[in-house]
Amino acid sequence: MSFKSLKKIFVLILISSVLLSSQFIQASAEDVSSFGNSKDKIVSGYFNYKTNINNIYEGSPIEFDSKDILVSDNKIEDNKVVINYGEVAKFNIDVPETAHYIMKLYYQIPDAHVLPTTLEVRINGDFPYDELRNVAFYNLWQRYKEPVLDRYNNEIVPDVMSVNIDQSGLIVDSSGRERNPLLIPLNEGTNELSLTSIEGNILIEKVEILALEKTKSYKNEKTGTIEGEHLIVIEGETPTLQNSPSIRPGSWFNKDLTPYDPKYKKLNYIDGLSFKEALQFVEYEFEVEESGEYHLGLRYLQDAKVDFSVFADIYLDGEIIYESLENYQFKYNTNFSDTVLHNDEGDLIFDLDKGKHVIRIELRIDPLQDILEEIEEIIYEVQQLSITIKNLVGNEVDKNRNFEILEYIPDVEDQLIGWADRLSVIYDTVQEIEGTEKNISAFASVQIAEKQLRSIASKRREIHIRVNELSTGTNSITSHLGSLLEGMNNNGISIDKLFFFQNKGNIPKTAGFFEKTIDSIQRFFISFGNQSYTVNQKNSDNLQVWVNRPRQYVEILQNMIDKDFTPKTGIKVDLSIMPDPNKLILANASGNAPDVALSLNYALPFDLAIRGAILDLTQFEGFEEVASQYSPNLHLPAMIGDSVYAMPETMNFYVMFYRTDILDNIGIEPFDTMEEVVLNLPILHQQGLNFFYPTAGMASMKIFAGTMPIIYQNNGRFYDETINRTLLNSKETIEGFKKLTDLFTIYNMPYDVPSFYQQFRDGSLPIGIADYGAYNLLTNAAPEIANLWDIALMPGYYNEDSKEVERWSSGGAESSIIFSDTERKDESWEFMKWWSSKDVQIQFGTTLQTSFGKEFMWNTANLEAFASLPWKSQHKEVVLEQAEWIHEVPRVLGTYMLERELSNAYNSVVLDGEDLRRAIDLATKRINRETNRKLEEFGYIKDGEIVEEYYTPYLEAWRNDDE
Fold first, then answer.
1. pLDDT tens for each residue of 455-484
2. Nearest Cα to 632, choosing from 653, 610, 647, 654?
3. DSSP symbol at 435
4. Hey, how many other C-beta atoms are within 10 angstroms of the C-beta on 280?
5. Which of 168, 171, 194 is nearest to 87 (CA)?
6. R_g (Cα) of the chain, nearest Å
7. Residues 414-428: tens digit of each pLDDT
8. Is 59 left (phi over 0), alpha (psi -120 to 50) or beta?
9. Among residues 239, 496, 227, which one has the least CA distance to residue 349?
10. What distance in Å separates the CA atoms of residue 716 and residue 713, rounded to the nearest whole number?
11. Residue 601 phi, psi (nearest 5)
């Protein structure tokens, strides 16, 4: 060990001892109470910024050609300034006075980028407020109108295509909370406008600055009855235009929806599970055959907010013609039913001239802006009080300890009651918005949090005991309120049809009771017939492929096969949804196995291979080329000797997540090494915070993904050249295992975290190591911290020999295999090559996301394909770099015992306080005994003698060749 490392450890121990001893030193009442009442939160959002705006431009619009004001060296194409991903374009804008202006960009998005193009907007080198760090510009999309049928004659979601046309858009709050365009401060004279693309590419043609429209002009609203028989029906599932590729049609066996068939799936509504985000819109073009007055109705379902409305702007020919159509309320409605757009006076009347028209429905959330901002403020303040109390009494709750909290935080009861009162006002406000005095289930979390606050306040001597109820865990106040914020961002509306009508009697009728009863009977008998994508649908002439995924995935893949793979190769393929992957061994033994199986857990192929059930893929031509598409060590779990029995399909990457806002506030940078993590733990602990390590999120069984990394990062290994004796008790492995357990036994990392996702959201664990699952959740289900977190490489240990930080981590997820009994070996390999290829993986991942929503993130193991998937570009760069450090533990005879005993040793040391050496020695004996038993079972040992060596598979050479 180097002198530098010894010095770091000495300093760490010194700091830790001081901090630990300070837990028992009483802080002054003045110091602690002032921290509890801290108003030092950085108020950098537009919601607070706009309250201080008093100079707003009122003059005429000023327009600039982008190429004329460009001062950076960007390319010019077709008189437009090109800003590609990662590039910056700088413009000089001259304005007549110092004031706040609205800004409009005239632009084109040149490619079919699934994610919105996102710009950072700096004014004179700075961000006046946070919303300018993330300004979204949406591409426009259309779905192909021709129905797409699968081989079972069910309609499936057609592909989308981008509409690359010139657009214009005001700079607005991308969250949709702020109703008006953002007001941007500019000084009299020349100002520098800097646009940086942090996602996607964009071409800027013009920049325009405008005055804020003080009052909007609407037409006088017409209501009443009208005469006539004309009816125009617009099917909701076929919008002409949409600004998100993931807005999709859905299929429902519901006789009230059209089109409908009791046997075959028909796309018959716009799915509210995809049409749900503020600022998303769908647009329908329709034709009026005769000028006149019309009412407008919709058949819709809205179950996103229980007992509460979803809001939308209704545009007719590009305008919101009536004030009532701004933030129109779509009431809670769990069954598709009809509504006619109306105001307090009656049904609205629309004057329509003969010819083509366009209606747009755009989801809004701005009526809830004040409520959402208030809830976020309460969450922040509750977290601050929780940190203050934990600094006083420590992180571990002692129910037997008496503590006079009022001596240190005299106004703690007032704070708790104050928050409860504010939540009560919030609940009254939402009842007023909804126009009801009944309970609103969508805001039940507000009532729960309010009651919890009053309960804590009523027993002041127990406040320190109940501190975790403030902001720690799934039942805490901040958790309830955070979940509410998440729910408020779901504004889903499902639309079956729109209809302009004159006579209400002409509106398409919903099915009556007897019709629905007959339909239910039909559906019952149809259910006994052939079912699509089941293993029973077997055509002996076709390649049989079982897929261990839900139906949505199978539908997309089967469609791709029928359109691409079969025409190219002549090989017909039947996909089936796998009934139970754990029964594949039995299926193989009974002769019922498929030719190919996809999406198996990466550990399962070894169990099949050692029993001769699947093929060695190295025998096929082109294997090395296919295998080279992946991180080399992903192949290890599927190897026996030099043979490889599976191809990786997806990867479960591990990276470090961190809250940028919290780390900035406490003045620390993201950690590069585990030494840095340990050295900074006292600073986190001082703030009532901590670091998350993956073992804390696992149940009692700590799998390799948690126990392996630090051991490998310290040059430890589990097996030598052969597997007869484990290296668990080798010097390097013990050193790595000790560093792992020391994180919890010495440095006080949390050893049991039910939900890192939840505690990362509430800020109590603002930094830690987690996987793809956490990434998907935080990307798609944590709107209250959007743009407040980032990812970095997994911290590791510096290696003096290699002169680099070693970041070895797990990465296995799902794999694909070919069964030994197949009579179509070459066809199976052709299919596997096709499925593994870059272009197919890109198409599958993109289609999955555009068909079913952004949360369907395909984590392909094909590294080149991953680089082109619709994920945030900066994050893809981190994941791809971390993928170079993937190193799975080889699967060999008895590996399950190694994983189990390593977990047992961890639990013995961390939870039971057992001596590490003793725990390792016991684990080693059990592992060796079980390994030898398995070697004997499979014929490698006979009568106690080794008859054939079982060599440990290693792939370091692949990595060296790549370098």
1. 999 987 788 888 888 987 778 898 899 889
2. 647
3. T
4. 23
5. 194
6. 31
7. 999 999 999 999 999
8. beta
9. 227
10. 7
11. -55, 135
Q: Which residue type occupies 921?
A: D
Structure tokens at 711: 């051991």
Q: Judge residue 942's burial from the number of C-beta atoms within 10 Å of its C-beta, 0-12 exposed, 13-18 middle, 19 or more buried.
A: exposed
**Whether the predicted pLDDT of 769 surpasses 80:** yes
| DSSP codes, 568-586 | HH---EEEEE-S-GGGHHH
Which is nearest to 817 in space by CA: 545, 496, 532, 539? 545
For residues 356 and 285, the answer to whether their CB atoms sit within 8 Å is yes
- The confidence band for 530, taking pLDDT boundaries of 50, 70 and 90, is low
Both structure tokens of 524: 């019952």
DSSP states of 480-540: HHHHHHHHHT----EEEEEEEES-GGGSPPPP-HHHHHHHHHHHHHHTTS--TT-TT---T
| Strand locations in 75-116 (E) | 76-77, 80-83, 88-95, 99-108
pLDDT for the residue numbered 960:
39
The two three-digit tokens of residue 245, written as one number:
């590729």
**Predicted structure pTM score:** 0.87
CA 815 vs CA 236, 534, 618: distances in Å: 39, 21, 15
Q: Is the peptide bond before 259 cis (omega within 30 degrees of 0)?
A: yes
Distance of CA 6 to the CA centre of its chain: 41
pLDDT 10s digits, 824-871: 999 999 999 999 999 999 999 999 999 998 899 999 999 999 999 999
**What per-residue confidence (pLDDT) applies to 529?**
66
Q: Is residue 931 a contact partner of residue 893, using CB atoms and an 8 Å limit?
A: yes
Which pLDDT belongs to residue 867?
A: 97
Give the span between the Cα atoms of 393 and 395, in whole angstroms. Answer: 7
Q: Is the Cβ–Cβ distance between 606 and 637 less than 8 Å? A: yes
CA-to-CA dists, residue 509 to 349, 519, 562, angstroms: 21, 16, 38
Kindly give, in sequence order, each residue whose CB lies less than 8 Å from that of residue 478, ignoring residues fewer than 6 positions away: 379, 382, 383, 386, 470, 471, 762
Sign of the C-alpha dihedral computed for residues 743, 745, 746 and 748 taken in this order:
positive
β-bridge mates for residue 285, sequence order: 358
Q: Where are the alpha helices (DSSP H) in 730-824?
A: 731-745, 756-762, 772-780
Q: Which of 676, 673, 659, 655 is nearest to 795 (CA)?
A: 673
